[in-house]
Amino acid sequence: MFECVINVSEGRDEAVLGDLSAAGGPSLRDRHSDAFHHRSVFTLINDRDRLVRDVRTLIGAAYQRLDLADHQGVHPRFGVVDVVPFVALERARASEAVTLRDQTANWIAAAFAVPVFLYGPLADGSLRTLPEVRRGAFAALRPDLGPDQPSPARGSVAVGARPILVAWNLWLDGVNVAQARSMASAIRRPAVRALAFEVGDEVQVSCNIVDTDAARPSELYDQVGSLLPAGATIRRAELVGLAPASLVTSEDRSRWAQLGLSSDSTIEARCGRQI
User: Which of 11, 146, 173, 273 could form a disulfide with 115 if both were Cys (CB 3.0 to 4.6 A apart)?
Assistant: First the structure.
């Protein structure tokens, strides 16, 4: 089984989002949409051949329905289809996820004339991260595939191969965005990427746990809690997409609600099988 977590720059139009969800076919296990970020995360999981068909159908539908020129949102983005990572849910099959990445990247460049940046393991043996792509695209980095300039309507896309990642947010009360950025900086480390956003009238610390063996939501929650100024609180925690059951069950069950976790929010539960 493989996972593909497609990040699309649309989080408001329910009719469009419904069509994109339908395009995900039987591989779609979860959709998380945010109007302020103007972004949706579609989690697709299936056997290799079925996953590839559904990934291509969803990407094609997004390019047909959306125009980056109309997009405004707080989340960084450089494409209608912004990020397309492939994940091997069995670590021994990680090289197959790289193959899926490369096949999909070549297809996107050829079918839609969109610049494609690769991340994860590269052919020269180096490892490129998604933050490196975001920082360097069209400056220090040229596209790996496709045209040299972004499409006005479709932008560009990062297509990757990576281990399991858990996206998880904290919503804060009584904190301004400068204070939240300081907190994000304090919790950031190799296992955790963190940013802060002003989301409407609220402030959010947005985390990507990139090494689920080295960091847990409860640790980040408690660390941010210890940094809050007097009178400030953590309003809620939010899981974006799905998490492996091993991460959820490693947390004290009495804290699941506080941490935004549940038994239904696991990869295994949504697939109806052990992976």
Answer: 146
